[in-house]
Amino acid sequence: MLIGERKILRLEKIANEIREDIIAMLLAAGSGHSAGPLGMADVFTALYFHVANINPKNVRDEKRDRIFLSNGHICPVWYATLAHAGFFPRTELKTLRKLNSRLQGHPHFGSLPGIENTGGPLGQGLSQAVGAALALRLNKFRSRVFCLMSDGEQEEGQTFEAVMSAGKYRLNNLVAIMDRNNIQIDGPTEEIMPLEPLSDKYRAFNWHVIEVDGHNIRSIVDACDEARSIIEKPTLILAHTTPGKGVDFMENDYEWHGKPPTKEEARRALQQLRTLGGRITSEHE
Amino acid sequence: MNKILNPQLFSKNVELVPTRNGYGDGVVDAGRLNENVVVLCCDLSESTRSLAFARAFPNRFFEMGVAEQNMAGVAAGMATVGKIPFITSYAVFSPGRNWDQIRVSICYSNLNVKIVGAHAGLTVGPDGATHQALEDVAIMRVLPNMVVLSPCDAHEARRAVCAAARHVGPVYIRLYREKSPIITRANAPFEIGRAYVVREGSDVTIIASGPLVYEALLAAEQLRKRGIEAEVINCPTIKPLDEKTILKSVQKTGAVITVEEHQIAGGLFGAIAEFLSRTNPVPILPIGVRDTFGESGEPAELLTKYGLRAADVVRAALILLK
After folding, report:
1. Cβ B104–A120 below 8 Å, yes or no?
2. Distance of alpha carbon A80 from alpha carbon A192, whole angstroms
3. pLDDT digits 0-9 by tens, A67-99
4. Second-level CATH architecture of B196-321
5. Are B77 and A138 an interchain contact pair (Cβ–Cβ within 8 Å)?
6. Domain extents in chain A
């Protein structure tokens, strides 16, 4: 679906608001992951506010597109996006990780409108997405399945079991989007367990691969459109992202993979997001 | 009682059929009744008997290759769209190798996936310990939302598969490779959560699950000759337990023997002991594998060596009632 300049500007503004919510949520929770959620705010915004056929007023529509999250630990961005899109009240975001909350530390299918799969232990989401894509095709629905995943979880054997099966079944209704931010908990991915050449690996398993700047909303939207035209293969969108995007002291620092900001750090982060919003959105223009 | 047992059970020509054949027939039945039933298999479609379904409904059969973790996750994804997937492999691989996927992707989401673990127990025989699942009931039983079924013969396996297809939620069904006696009639009753008294008695309750129900019944016959009347309960649903039937019998007999082709830790003995210890504590002796791996051998030889025969049940009863 083509996208105009004005809509891009509007989506960039939403993505920045989602980042602000993420910081506020993590501060209130006192635990959780910072870098991944900030890095994926643009992708989530593009999917929920433009690309995917999903209606928060009819969350059980059987012909809806599905958005699955494999690396469940970045769920603050999923929750914040869903709240912005109207799936549940934004006020509920501050219950993240608290007792009796619907916003579990890792997402739970069935707890919260819009959450389509349970995820957390890495490597499970792509298999689930393959299953949903197979079942939707069996039903002769034209729905698509988007599976968001991390680069670190490419180290899980199950990921490539799923990659192989998606290639076998030529799942053209499956789009995997990998958050290629190059960090994992213990350090840079290429030091922990080298993943490259990622594109070649997926192509070898009969996938179509598109590389994009994961902070450029037009590129993300265009890649999702291109995937629709690939009829004989599943598509991987390799989204190059900056972990911690929008908060300078979090960007590209693996130390921020798995911790929340302190009160002072959150204040500085919010100040940057609010005052430097214009710079973030103009960076790729 | 006679409505349940095969009248030819104690004849020399009792029919012998593997429980996995009952699954093969049952899943085709379920597939006819509900077009949402689909079957996934990991390169073992002939020996798990999923092949029957693949032939009947080729579009609803998915060959997943040797990748059990992916199979469990794919089934979970299918279930989110309303399918009723049966995932099939050997029990040592599924649920042996994909427990985390069953826990997180299936059980935590309470998805409608049926896990069929074939070739369970020592009676896998010559393949040896790597292929003899003796822990599967334990690892499935501890998962919230999971139902655990261990049918005693091919007829009961067929009924269990149909009941599992109707039940909404995850179910584990344990199957065996070896031919075993047809214990029940084809039209015997079956409900998830029900245990069946297959022989009445007042001195000791023998609770058995799987094809070893036959050994339990043989033991009851031998005990009768010694003046001991054993009540035998076939317990095809290990979770949730039929507490009412078990309690009623135990309040009458005051002594229990459990019989299973599984580690005594965490299986049927575990389930019964956990239940009775908090409701009606009585002496219980387990017949099962005692914290050891199996080995290669003929099925009958293995049952004898590891103490799972009628004679072992008789011995346990005599100790218990001394």
Report:
1. yes
2. 30
3. 999 999 999 999 999 999 999 999 999 999 999
4. 3-Layer(aba) Sandwich (3.40)
5. no
6. 5-282
Domain with CATH 3.40.50.920 in chain B: 196-321
Kindly state the DSSP code that residue B84 receives in the 8-state scheme. Answer: E
Q: Which chain A residues have any C-beta within 8 angstroms of a chain B C-beta?
A: 62, 66, 68, 108-110, 116-121, 123-136, 138-139, 157-158, 161-162, 164-165, 168
Euclidean distance between the first and the last CA atom of chain A, given in angstroms as a whole number: 20
Complex ipTM value: 0.96
Residue A238 gets which letter from DSSP? E
Which residue in chain B is spatially nearest to A111 when comparing CA positions?
B109
Topology of domain B16-181 in CATH is Rossmann fold (3.40.50)
Q: Which of B230, B183, B187, B229 is nearest to B209 (CA)?
A: B183
Q: Is the Cα dihedral A67, A70, A76, A77 positive or negative?
A: negative
pLDDT over 90 percentage in chain B:
99
- CATH code, A5-282: 3.40.50.970
Q: Say if the Cβ atoms of B105 and A110 lie within 8 Å.
A: no
Where are the domain boundaries for CATH 3.40.50.970 in chain B? 16-181
| Interface mutation target, options A61, A111, A137, A161, chain B, most CBs of B under 10 Å | A161
How far apart are the CA of A158 and the nearest CA of chain B, in angstroms?
6
